[in-house]
Design a protein that fits this description.
This is F-box associated beta-propeller type 1 domain-containing protein. InterPro entries: F-box-assoc_dom_typ1, SCF_F-box_component. It holds the Pfam family FBA_1. Strand 2 and strand 3 form a beta hairpin. This protein is mainly beta. The chain is globular and about 65 Å long. The protein contains four helices and 20 strands. The strands form five sheets. Strands 8, 9, 10, 11 and 12 form a five-stranded antiparallel β-sheet that branches. Strands 13, 14, 15, 16 and 17 form a five-stranded antiparallel β-sheet that branches. A four-stranded antiparallel β-sheet has the order 4-5-6-7, with no helix packed on it.
């Protein structure tokens, strides 16, 4: 009885000899294949699922396909009174070709939507439906599958709290985490945080992080399972003070004070040669420098 068996788990006794390619040759072909082919090949057997989801395969596949296509994702939002819906457009940065992506049905009629981040082809969205509290959605654009992540109990986006979200992957795994940092009171320096793991499908209990932390910028950088934000002092985003980094493996924070001569105009974190970098214009507004 082969009902429910996966294709490659069934022994094909009558397969022609020329079909029996060495595994390493098949893997080499798949390195250069597009994600849709790789995704379908994962369903062939437990063996191929293990090979094609390994960190080594994902890393080499990314390297092989890095120069094949460069594209941008643009989020376009129209208020509901226009009669139009949210749109996400994929733009080829070389040719300018545009592809409208069909949004998951959960956000078709949402009042507000933010793209939290994109990692390994997975999109994390935060959206609001008709005055209800914010919801979190994980979306695979390739397969058009989506999953609603139950928000933590304190995720109410009230005016007295400042919330930031970030999406990151645990290195060498396919497990993603959503880091949620927030403040309960702007008058003290405590920053609280909690982390969702796709492995356990739960949020950790929120923990307080001390140290004169006023508010984090909404933009972040994710590298090797570490998420970094700019921490601003004061009531506005005009005074960058430090860079705060959270490690999902170490479950710990570290803080780097921004040098005094680099605080002027420091408002953007960048990837630079595998490191988190800070862009600022300490000398002139039209001359940016990098602090690594």
């Amino acid at each position: 009885n082969t009902k429910g068996a996966q294709i490659a788990d069934i022994e094909m006794l009558d397969a022609p000899a020329q079909w029996n390619l060495p595994d390493d040759l098949i893997v080499e072909i798949l390195y250069r294949s597009n994600p849709a082919i790789v995704g379908r090949s994962r369903a062939m057997s437990h063996k191929w699922k293990h090979i094609l989801t390994s960190f080594e395969f994902l890393q080499k596949s990314y390297t092989c396909n890095l120069e094949r296509q460069h594209s941008l994702l643009i989020h376009v939002f129209f208020p509901n009174w226009t009669g139009n819906m949210n749109s996400i457009i994929r733009v080829d940065s070389n040719k300018g070709n545009r592809l409208f992506c069909t949004l998951p049905p959960e956000v078709h009629d949402c009042q507000n939507m933010d793209i939290v981040g994109i990692e390994n082809g997975i999109v994390c969205l935060a959206y609001n439906m008709h005055g209800e509290s914010k919801q979190i959605l994980i979306w695979n654009m390739l397969t058009q599958s989506s999953k609603i992540i139950p928000p933590p109990d304190h995720f109410d986006y009230s005016t007295s709290r400042h919330h930031v979200l970030a999406l990151t992957y645990i290195p060498r795994t396919t497990t993603y985490c959503i880091v949620h940092a927030f403040k309960q009171n702007f008058d003290n320096g405590l920053l609280f945080y909690t982390v969702y793991s796709s492995a356990t499908e739960t949020w950790s209990e929120f923990v307080a992080l001390e140290g004169n932390l006023t508010r984090l910028g909404s933009e972040y950088i994710s590298i090797n399972g570490e998420v970094s934000w700019i921490n601003y002092s004061g009531d506005t985003y005009q005074s960058p003070e430090s860079v705060i980094t959270y490690s999902v493996l170490g479950k710990a924070w570290k803080r780097l004070i921004i040098p005094g001569n680099c605080k002027i105009g420091a408002s953007k974190l960048l990837h630079f040669e595998g490191k988190v970098s800070l862009a600022s214009y300490p000398t002139a507004k039209d001359q940016y420098g990098l602090v690594v």
